[in-house]
Amino acid sequence: MRWNTRQTRIEEELNEVRIDPVLEVALKDFRLSVHAWSEAAMNRPRKPIHSAVHVTWRLAVSWALGCLLAAGSVGGGLYERHHRQELARQAAAEQSRQRQMAAEAAAVTAHEQNGAASTREQDEQLLAEVDSDVSREVPSAMEPLAQLMEETGNK
Amino acid sequence: MTLETAEAIAAQEFARVVQKHRPHIFRFLLASTRDVDLAETLTQECFLKAHRYWKDFRGESSAMTWLMRIAINLERDHWRNRRVQFWRQTKVHAVDLDEASEWLPSGERSAEQQLLARERVGQVWKAVEQLSARQRTVFLLRYVEEQELREIAQATGLSEGTVKAHLARAVGRVRSELGGKR
After folding, report:
1. Cβ of residue A31 closer than 8 Å to a chain B Cβ
2. Which residue from A123, A155, B24, B47 puts its CA 20 to 30 A from B114's CA?
3. Is the domain B95-182 a CATH 1.10.10.10 member?
4. Which fold, B1-92?
């Protein structure tokens, strides 16, 4: 009785959307096909199924790890680059400091050398003056003695 | 009646509901997604959700309609979530139309009749693929699950008039697909 009522209502609805015989056959085949497929799929050997939540978590964790790895790589690269730049800067500063020290040392040496030469010249000039003064101040009575000393010195 | 007894009765009742309606829910989800694994997953989630809210089910509609509504919402949410992903994994897992059309009960048909039936089923699948999500849901509930318009309206949350409109458009699409191949 209930089935008849249901069937009548379905037929009424079918009339409303105008189902022709060709369409009716196609829809019936489609229904049978889906039922057969569903039954076969329900009875197939089962394999472990990951729930959508599990899959979502796995994807989220994968993404997080991937992002972490990418951030680590970029951060490591940046740190390495910064470290190299710092080392190069320190080496350049050290070289500059050494160059400056060498220049200062060279300047000091040159100054010392100049000073020594100048002192020597002054001494020689002074000695020459003293010699000429002394030679001028020796009395004629001492001339033979002076010549004797000179000769002795030459020997 | 003690609390334990009431809970035991409710659990038995729910187990009967699962046994009775699981094939229908799975079939609807399989036809909607054409993906066996996804259909199984969504069916499991549907019954998990139903179990969680079983105490709140007041019987205003049939258990089947209530379960179908949960299944429809789960499927819609699944595609909505998929939309924001960079790849659509489930599209890869869904079987193609030819494979879906392979399934036919052998019955008493000749080889030629089987071939024609397979071709018709393929054409219907092709039309179904082109339907909007709502049209497809209404079409499958009507012509695969053989539900009445009132039940479809309850399961989808649409008015009967809207269901009829969706159904008419869906049938029109199938008809034109079949007509084009004649």
Report:
1. yes
2. B24
3. yes
4. Rna Polymerase Sigma Factor; Chain: A (1.10.1740)
